[in-house]
């Protein structure tokens, strides 16, 4: 597996994402239907609590709110203040609680969420620690969606590289990582239009 530090450099993460926050969604204007479809596949129950980890500008939050309904609870966690500021400016603080926090040390009690949506998250954190922390806050039989709105191959091409043989999102790598962290892999969909891995706590 790709070597990753035990803890990400939060200052570096913030420095990377802060200047990209304002134009973030305009760079990828056609992704909303894919986010909506991924939420449908995650299928958080009405009235449940769902966590959007590394929520960024909160693009998925209206879809999560629609899924859980007015009786549900939507939590959005991101480590970059500027991303959350854009989310607030877009009115997404009205559909979710926006929390500035480190995803490896979530300010949530154990077994407090029913489902987790993670878009683009595992590319920026040590996967084992991230998956263990998400398992900690998820109730038994809760569900996890690991998502990207394009396939691994398309993402690598966009970044001018090939898909690494030890890519942490490769099913042969991710499935055992999930199992070691308290999750059971349920399905993998790697393109051409998206990446979506579903797992159960």
Give a written overview of the molecule:
Helix content is 34%, strand content 23%. It has 201 residues and is of the alpha/beta class. A seven-stranded mixed sheet has the order 3-2-1-4-5-7-6, sandwiched between helices. The longest helix is centred in the first third of the chain and has 11 residues, at 32-42.
Task: Sum up the structure in keywords.
8 helices, alpha/beta, 201 residues, single chain, 7 strands
- The helix fraction, in percent, is 25-40%
Structural class: alpha/beta
Q: What is the chains' assembly state? A: single chain
Taken in chain order, the helices and strands follow as: HHHEHEHEEHEHHEE
Major sheet summary line: 7 strands, mixed
Strand content: 15-25%
Shape from CA axes? globular
- Tally the beta strands: 7
Which helices and strands, and how do they pair?
Layout: H1 10-17, H2 24-27, H3 32-42, E1 49-53, H4 61-68, E2 73-78, H5 81-89, E3 97-100, E4 113-119, H6 127-137, E5 138-148, H7 152-158, H8 171-180, E6 184-190, E7 195-200
Quick recap:
The chain is built from eight helices and seven strands. With 201 residues, it is an alpha/beta fold. It is globular, with a radius of gyration of 16 Å.
């Amino acid at each position: 597996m790709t070597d990753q530090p035990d803890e990400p450099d939060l200052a570096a993460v913030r420095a990377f994402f802060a200047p990209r926050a304002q134009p973030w969604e305009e760079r990828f204007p056609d992704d909303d239907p894919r986010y909506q479809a991924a939420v449908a596949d995650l299928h958080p129950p009405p009235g449940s609590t769902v966590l959007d980890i590394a929520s960024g500008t909160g693009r998925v939050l209206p879809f999560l709110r629609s899924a859980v309904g007015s009786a549900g609870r939507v939590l959005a966690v991101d480590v970059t203040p500027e991303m959350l500021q854009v989310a607030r400016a877009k009115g997404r603080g009205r559909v979710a609680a926006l929390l500035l926090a480190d995803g490896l040390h979530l300010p949530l009690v154990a077994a407090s969420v029913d489902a987790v949506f993670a878009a683009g998250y595992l590319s920026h954190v040590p996967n084992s620690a991230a998956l263990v922390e998400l398992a900690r806050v998820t109730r038994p039989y809760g569900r996890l969606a690991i998502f990207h709105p394009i396939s691994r191959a398309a993402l690598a091409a966009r970044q001018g590289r090939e898909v690494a043989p030890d890519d942490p999102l490769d099913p042969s790598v991710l499935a055992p990582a999930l199992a070691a962290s308290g999750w059971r892999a349920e399905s993998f969909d790697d393109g051409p239009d998206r990446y979506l891995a579903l797992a159960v706590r």
